[in-house]
Amino acid sequence: MENKALKIVVLIKHVPDAEFDRHLTGPSHTVDRSTSILSELDEYPLEAALQLVEAHGGAKKAGHQVIAVTMGPDQASAAVKKALQIGAHEGVHLSDEALAGSDAAATSLALAAVVKQIGDVDLVMAGMASTDGETSLVPAQLAERLQLPQVTFASELELQDEGGTYRIRARRDGDTHSDTIESALPAVVSVTDQINEPRYPNFKGIMAAKKKPLTTFSLADIGLETADVGFDGSWTRVESAAARPPRSHGTIITDEGDAGKQLVDFLEQQKLV
Amino acid sequence: MPDFALSEDYQDLVDTVREFADEVIAPVSAKHDEEHSFPYDVVAQMAEMGLFGLPFEEEYGGMGGDYFALCLAIEQIARVDQSLAITLEAGVSLGAMPVYRFGTEEQKKRWLPELASGQSLASFGLTESEAGSDASGTKTTAKLENGEWVINGTKEFITNSGTDITKLVTVTAVTDTTTRDDGTVKKEISTFLVPTDTPGFTAEKPYNKVGWNASDTHPLTLKDVRVPEENLLGERGRGYANFVQILDEGRIAVAAMAVGAAQGCVDEALRYAKERKAFGQTIGEFQSISFKIARMQSRAHTARLAYYDAASRMLAGKPFKTEASIAKMVGSDAAMDNSRDATQIFGGYGFINEFRVARHYRDSKILEVGEGTTEVQLMLIARDMGL
After folding, report:
1. Which of B375, B344, B343 is nearest to B362 (CA)?
2. Residue A204 and residue B63: Cβ atoms within 8 Å?
3. Do A204 and B50 touch (CB under 8 A)?
């Protein structure tokens, strides 16, 4: 039996570049996104999705599709553009002023609505965290909202051809042991930065990206109300924020014969031994 | 009015290659420089990104870009590593380009896909101990015997000629001589495709160079090397005209490389001037340093405009030889001057080999020599002015 063409959604985020000084801005302490890039951790699920497609007949031959989805202000479309240059086949950008200030709960609600709107999605893939919020909450919440099985923090991922359908098999590394988890599709999978080595776009990809479809959705397009998302739809609220204090000078131990003892005393004080 | 703003495609290429250079190349540059080792892993990744196929059409395995795209990529790589920039420059503009420009359809189909994909490297066997820009000194000969060209001679300073992935060298050789009325001898020069596995072809021991240590450079020996008659590249007797064209274009690519080196020195010096403190302030706050860096930036900027101008003339099909010579000369001047200033700003660290500015200092010297010395550029510029 001929397998169904796969439709894989990869969730990507436009985040402040860690190379620059990152800070919070405005009365609600939201992240300043003026120097932003495609989150490096989101290049891993994109690469993993492209590899799955390539290993199973390719996009052209088998009709598989990788769709990069982001939620964010206008300039976040730069992240989708980068994903299209790297190799995603389509882009979807959820952009609406009412989304500003959404926490993980509100974000997962909105993304779940986007996935439903795209329709017939076999696999939703995400990175292990965003490099700004770093909550790692969205994939699990999204799976819950979509009522799909979830595998988080996969460090290896393969698709098993079951003749007519696919199953995923993922490896999950813990501190003491590793698990191998299988699931039927559709499913939500987040992957770690150990899973692959993401590719760089090539010039053909850069030029091809401009011709690939990029759809922009508003809240109304995905059937949500203003109150469902943003500050109103969030379960958490940042009351106050302070800049991290500058790193203080370390303690310098001068060896006058008792440096070893001083070192152990220090570690003891810090409850490290 | 001329407009040198980059289009979105070019800018995206620049951003991508710059990111790759910073993340993948820069961390291993000092190691390969010290070990004099060819960075096969990095070259393979550059190949995956399609850098070796930038100016070629997709039907030949290329990326469908143009020569300017190649120059932009070379500039970004040279910022952090001149050895890898010259590997790309020589591989494409000297190695593959002669096949692309002068090859028959059959020769192009045979060689370009593997060269454009970066699976194999080609090199350009022109220079000899007494012949370079002056081709009349060429001593290598090729004689047609029973449907085969028999090539004998030696070549010097041939980039990319001895790597594990080098498969082809295009070699210039004297195919005939005629005596002019005044008694001087006129040499007929032709070009040949010599696969590196041809018996009699040897890439000799690599040179111990001042710089470009991670780039592969050998003398070549050709002893009764026999290639089929159809390995003649371009018309018989057009070898000189053809390699002049290749060198004219190549000068723009070398200019781009020199600009990358000059900019790399600015970037490093700027970063260091903001960090390093002396006499209670950062050294960048001393006018002697800030003016030096401002001058370095100005050199890099003007040299960049010069190569953009030469490249845009070339792509528009206009005459560009003189502009290419100017770009190559001011670019190599900028690289040399900036590397001298950057090492001065770095103080003692500028004299330590593993620092990038020290590498640029050693590497930049050859930019004043390769693909036509500064003196040859001046000769060409002056000749164009009727002098």
Report:
1. B343
2. yes
3. yes
Q: Which two tokens stand for residue A142?
A: 């999204």
**pLDDT tens digits, residue range B119-177?**
999 999 999 999 887 878 999 999 999 999 999 999 999 999 999 999 999 999 999 99
- Number of H-type helices and E-type strands within chain A: 8, 13
Q: Is residue A8 within a helix (H) or strand (E), and if so which, with residue range?
A: strand A7-11
Contact list in B for residue A199 (CB cut-off 8 A) is 48-49
A262/B45 Cα distance (integer angstroms): 49
SS3 B77: helix
DSSP B123-180: EEE--BTTBSS-GGG---EEEEETTEEEEEEEEEEEETSSSTTEEEEEEEEEEEEEE-
Do residues B50 and A200 lie in contact, with contact meaning Cβ atoms separated by under 8 Å? no
Which positions in chain A touch B12 (Cβ < 8 Å)? 85, 201, 206
Spatial CA neighbour of B276 closest among B290, B265, B262, B291: B290
pLDDT of amino acid A33: 61
**Nearest beta carbon to residue A200 from set B8, B16, B54:** B16
| Residue showing tokens 């860096």 | B293
ipTM: 0.76
Query: Is the minimum CB–CB distance between B15 and chain A shorter than 8 Å?
Result: no
Residues 6+ positions from A51 with CB-CB distance below 8 Å? A196
Own/partner pairs, B333-336, CB within 8 angstroms, 24+ separation: B333/B299, B333/B303, B333/B368, B333/B374, B334/B258, B334/B259, B334/B262, B334/B299, B334/B300, B334/B302, B334/B303, B335/B258, B335/B259, B335/B261, B335/B262, B335/B265, B335/B360, B335/B364, B335/B367, B336/B364, B336/B365, B336/B367, B336/B368
Residue pairs spanning A and B at CB distance below 8 A: 39
Indicate the residue of B16, B45, B64 with minimum beta-carbon distance to A201: B16
* Residue B64 Cα, gap to closest chain A Cα (Å): 7
Instruction: For residue B137, give both structure tokens.
Output: 């000194």
Q: Which residues of B are catalytic?
A: 371
Q: Any residues with CB less than 8 A from the CB of B134 and at least 6 apart, and which?
A: none
pLDDT tens track for B178-189: 999 998 889 999
- Interface mutation target, options B16, B23, B54, B271, chain A, most CBs of A under 10 Å: B16
What region does B75 belong to: left with phi over 0, alpha with psi -120 to 50, or beta? Answer: alpha
Which of B52, B63, B66 has the highest number of chain A CBs within 10 A, making it the mutation to test binding with A?
B63
Distance CA B329, CA B309 (A): 14
Closest Cα in chain B, distance from residue A223 (Å): 35
